[in-house]
Design goal:
The chain has a single domain, classed as Protein of unknown function UPF0759 (TIM Barrel), CATH 3.20.20.410. 32% of the residues lie in helices and 15% in strands. The chain has ten helices and eight strands. Strand 5, helix 7 and strand 6 form a beta-alpha-beta unit. Helix 3 runs parallel beside helix 5 and helix 9 crosses helix 10. The radius of gyration is 18 Å and the shape is globular. 43% of the residues are buried.
Length: 294
C-alpha cells in the first residue's frame, strides 16, 4: 500500500505563465494559487526563500486552497539561514511566525531547507544543520542537499538521528552532484525534479551554457516512468510523499506534474472536484502549448 502522494509545482507567481497556464486576461477575482489548487495537491512556496512572508499573507493563501481538502503546502526556508548562515533570533522568529498559520491549519507538509551545492558533509556543516534543526523544532523539516557527500552512511545517519527528511533530487549532473535516489530518513518522503537544464543555483555542477538556459526542461515519458518507480519505493514506507517539479519555464512544471499524477493513477483525487464550475476548461488540464523535449 502506498501512502498519500501529493504532486505539484514549485512557486506560482510566474509572469511568463500568463496566457500559457493562466487565462489572459485574468477573470475578475482570479488567483493563481486557487487555480493550481484545483489541479494539484501541493505547491512548494518559493517566495519564502527570497523574502520574509507576512503571517496575513499565509492566511490569505489558506483561503485559496480551501476547496481542496487534500492540499498541503511545503515552504522553502529563507536563504538567510541556509546560504548566509544567519541565525539571528529576530529573523528566525519572523520566519516561524509566517509559517504558523499554515502549520496550525494542518496545511504545512514540511519546511524545505534548500542548501547550495557547496554545502558538503563536514563536521562544521553537520553541526550547523543540527543547530538549524533545533531552532526550527516546531516544524517538520526536509533537507535539499545537492552535494553527494551527504549520501554517505554518516550523512544519512545524521538526518535520521535528528529527524530531518531527505529530498531525492533530479538535477543537472556533475562530479559531486547528488544522484537520483529513493531515500527516506523520516516519515516524509520528498522528491524534487529541477530538470536537466537549470539556472545559476547549480553553478557548482553546471557549465555556462546550462546555467544560462534556466529551468526550461520538459521531462519525457521515459524519464517520468523512471521517477514513478522511485516515488513508489519512497511512498511504500513514508507516511506521506511530496513530488515537486521545479522546471517552470513555459509552464513545463505543471505539465509534468499532471503527467506524473496520471501515471501514478491519481486522476481520481479530490483536487479535480468542481473544476468545471464557472470554467470552460477541462478538468486538470492546463492551457499549455509547448513542444515535447527532444
Amino acid at each position: 500500500m502506498l501512502s498519500p502522494i501529493r504532486t505539484g509545482v514549485a512557486g506560482w507567481d510566474f509572469p511568463g505563465w500568463q496566457g500559457i497556464v493562466y487565462p489572459h486576461p485574468a477573470p475578475r477575482g482570479f488567483h493563481p494559487l486557487e487555480f493550481l489548487a484545483r489541479r494539484v495537491d501541493t505547491v512548494e512556496i518559493s517566495s519564502s526563500f527570497y523574502q520574509f512572508v507576512r503571517p496575513e499573507l499565509s492566511r490569505l493563501w489558506l483561503t485559496k486552497v480551501e476547496r481542496n481538502p487534500q492540499f498541503e503546502f511545503t515552504a522553502r526556508l529563507h536563504r538567510e539561514f541556509t546560504h548566509e548562515r544567519n541565525l539571528e533570533p529576530a529573523l528566525l522568529a519572523r520566519f516561524k511566525a509566517a509559517m504558523m498559520p499554515l502549520h496550525e491549519a494542518g496545511r504545512l507538509g514540511c519546511v524545505l531547507m534548500q542548501f547550495p551545492g557547496s554545502f558538503r558533509f563536514t563536521p562544521e556543516n553537520k553541526a550547523f544543520l543540527i543547530q538549524l534543526r533545533r531552532n526550527l523544532s516546531k516544524f517538520p523539516l526536509v533537507a535539499e542537499l545537492r552535494h553527494d557527500s551527504w549520501t554517505s552512511q554518516e550523512g544519512m545517519g545524521t538526518l535520521i538521528d535528528y529527524h530531518v527528511g531527505f529530498a531525492n533530487l533530479d538535477q543537472p549532473g556533475g562530479h559531486r552532484a547528488t544522484r537520483a535516489s529513493s531515500r527516506l530518513t523520516t516519515g516524509i518522503g520528498y522528491v524534487k525534479l529541477h530538470g536537466r537544464r537549470c539556472g545559476a543555483g547549480f553553478t557548482a555542477f553546471d557549465d555556462r551554457s546550462i546555467q544560462e538556459s534556466g529551468n526550461d526542461y520538459l521531462y519525457h515519458p521515459g524519464e517520468l516512468a523512471d521517477w514513478k518507480l522511485r516515488i513508489e519505493r519512497v511512498s511504500g514506507f513514508a507516511e506521506k510523499t511530496f513530488v515537486i517539479f521545479n522546471n517552470d519555464g513555459g509552464g513545463k512544471s505543471l505539465i509534468n506534474a499532471l503527467q506524473m499524477e496520471a501515471i501514478l493513477g491519481h486522476q481520481q483525487n479530490a483536487a479535480g472536484a468542481g473544476m468545471r464550475q464557472g470554467s470552460s476548461e477541462p478538468d486538470r488540464q492546463p492551457r499549455l502549448a509547448v513542444r515535447s523535449a527532444a
